[in-house]
Predict the structure.
Amino acid sequence: MIIMTLDHTRDFLHFPGPSPLDMQTTTVILFFTRWITHFCAPTFVFLGGVSAYLAGQRRSKKELSIFLLKRGAWLILSDMLIISLLFSFDLQYHMLILEVLWATGFGMIILALLLRAPIQIIAAVAVIIIFGHNLLDYMQLPQTGVAAGLTKLFLSAKGAFIPLSTGRAIIVLYAVLPWTGALLLGYAFGSLYKNGYDAKKRQRILRLTGISAVVLFVVLRLINHYGDPSPWATQRNTAHTILSFLNATKQSPSLFFFLMTLGPVMVLLSFTEKAVNRLAEFCRVYGNVPYIYFIVHLSLLRLINVVLALISGLPMKSDGSPIVWQVQGFGIPLWEVYLFWIGVVLLLYFPCRWYGNYKRTHSQWWLSYV
């Protein structure tokens, strides 16, 4: 949650320009400012699957299925109504932006439909999706009509634009199927956290799986054939060649992207399970309230964006970006982005701690959704 805030701070406040992942124009620090945040979405979705399994320990299959259906629908609506507004800054919703909450929510709906299956089947489906969805890179997918729209929504999306009518459209940043693979994988790994499971065995499995994923990433990336639609290539210097090697595709998430991110995350989980220190306690405050933090930090960043633009004296005229509304000519240097990132995180610490305590001491039904 903390690292994710860095990416959104850059989205809202940094100078507009070429992608931080463009090897021809990026710098090492700009690349890693973006690249480190690649770990956020897959971790968020994977742990969402783990949480779904743990929620099932207190519910019957039917109760869990109903909960996931409602929770998934709520996340989809949150993306369409709240996140789209914060990104596009358009009260008339000419653009619906489908982000990580949309993909996670739809993944929960799919998981709800699979709950009756043995967990081994769910794990197998997850592995097939994660390792097999890059076969789409070699297929001719529909380019027009309803079939093309459904393909972009569910199978493959890279800033996909789906026109609805004159002046209205959907922008799909997160396609459902690949991210559902990560959610289902998390649900399968959730079984390692059930009551009575041996902690040392759990940590050993996580560590072995994570290291294997990282090794597989390196080997397959060196082969440079299957696993990512964008092969790495020798660049103008050694540093940028390394960046090219690490630059796995996020939209839609490739096999290499998941191996590169979920592998280290599993290793980290194996070592930090019982971490008790000030840093762990600090991070846990935000981790206890992920949904409300997600909404509030984006709202705060949009407010900061508008205030800074007004202070700069710039007219409130859009620069034309279809995804993140920005005032034309506005932007601050990267070092200032880091200062605002730290400031936003610290500013929300006490509100998040209060709300986390409130959730622990109250049992209203709506607390399961926010």
Notes: The mean pLDDT is 93. Residues 2-368 form one domain.
